[in-house]
Amino acid sequence: MIITVSRQFGSGGREVGKRLADELGLTYYDKELVTEIAEHTDLNEGYVNSVLENGGFHNYAFTFGRSMPFVSATPAPVTDVLVAQQKIIKAIAKKGNCLIVGRSADVILKDMHPFRIFVYADNASKIARCRARAPENEHFTDKQMLKQFKEIDGGRRKLHELLGIHRWGDRAGYDLMMNTTNIDIKSVIPALAEYIRNAMKQ
Amino acid sequence: MIITVSRQFGSGGREVGKRLADELGLTYYDKELVTEIAEHTDLNEGYVNSVLENGGFHNYAFTFGRSMPFVSATPAPVTDVLVAQQKIIKAIAKKGNCLIVGRSADVILKDMHPFRIFVYADNASKIARCRARAPENEHFTDKQMLKQFKEIDGGRRKLHELLGIHRWGDRAGYDLMMNTTNIDIKSVIPALAEYIRNAMKQ
After folding, report:
1. What sign does the CA torsion over B35, B39, B40, B43 have?
2. For A182, which residue in chain B has the nearest alpha carbon?
């Protein structure tokens, strides 16, 4: 069983992924992939992360939800990172029973028919989630946050479109799209796991 | 509990709705609404149906999945039908515990916060589903079927946009979007029901 979780920034996609992996006994990959790719390419983790998120062109003010500092990038090894990403994600998937959050795993693994989830939420809900997780000394206005959401998701969108057929967030590229606005993620995980188990039997 | 099911033509949305209503003990509304509206407005059921599906402007060659013959329309009472639809759908929802397929119930009932599902599938899967349900003497090519899908869903889209904020099929307007390609609908219904029960607790 291979599951991929794509997500809007702030929608709780990582929480969905982590809890779902636990529920189904799958190995969970998120930042672990960045570390593996960095080791594989001898590049800085912050740089690898920025390439995988947005092609290496942006340095975000946002730190919450991401623990890796950004280090100034030279554009040259962008393709090295993307090639390493493909190799590593395919190698992980071959071992089976894994859940991968982000990193374009849905398109990289399309021939292996993963169950592809897209997690999203409305702006008010994403802002509330980010505020709840932000460090105490971080104070962004709603407007600043929305601008950053747009930039971060825009980076994901671009990279996805480089690799995939469908647009990022286009329902045609997913098996289930889950709106986390006003729901308690934890409470729906057992049912979500059961849905996927049955859907993948076909 | 109020659930609305919007669906692409041929995606099995009606099957999802029927089975889900059974599983959750909800009253199911689909064609029943057309009958009620026709009685309320003294209009022909075929005409009411065509207004609710596409604004009354089209007469489809497709008959499968729809048992009501189309009768020539005068454009005048279109708004009568739409006003009656809103009244009847709101009255039904006030009684509670119902599941409504189509008929823009998701937008008409937005203030009552229904759980809004969108059901979709890829073209190959929709063609196969329609062929399996078609009368023996009906023979459409794939191309003819795809053209009709586009027209029927286009009608739903237009009517939805007349009433709603979000575009028809835009994830922002739904709580869960379900791709039925390659899944056995029946097998996922109990998990889907459980997901909704927990999501609606919030």
Report:
1. positive
2. B202
Confidence of residue B67 (pLDDT cuts 50, 70, 90): very low
- Whether A112 has a pLDDT exceeding 50, the answer reads yes
CB contact under 8 A, A202 and B184: yes
Q: Which residues 14-43 on chain A approach chain B with CB closer than 8 angstroms?
A: none
Min distance B19 CA to chain A CA atoms (Å): 15
Q: Rounded to two decimals, what is the model's pTM?
A: 0.86
Question: What's the angle, vertex CA B34, arms to CA B160 and CA B25, rounded to 5?
Answer: 90
Tell me, what's the ipTM? Answer: 0.84
Please tell me the predicted confidence (pLDDT) of residue B35: 83
Residues of A in contact with B178 (CB under 8 A): 176
Alpha-carbon distance of A33 to A28, in angstroms, equals: 10
Domains and CATH numbers, chain B: 2-196 (3.40.50.300)
Tell me what the mean pLDDT of segment B146-167 comes to.
87
Tell whether the model's pLDDT for residue A74 goes beyond 60.
no
Chain B closest CA to A53's CA: distance in Å?
22
Is the pLDDT reported for residue B63 higher than 50?
A: no
In the predicted model, is pLDDT for residue A51 greater than 60? yes
Q: Do A171 and B184 touch (CB under 8 A)?
A: no
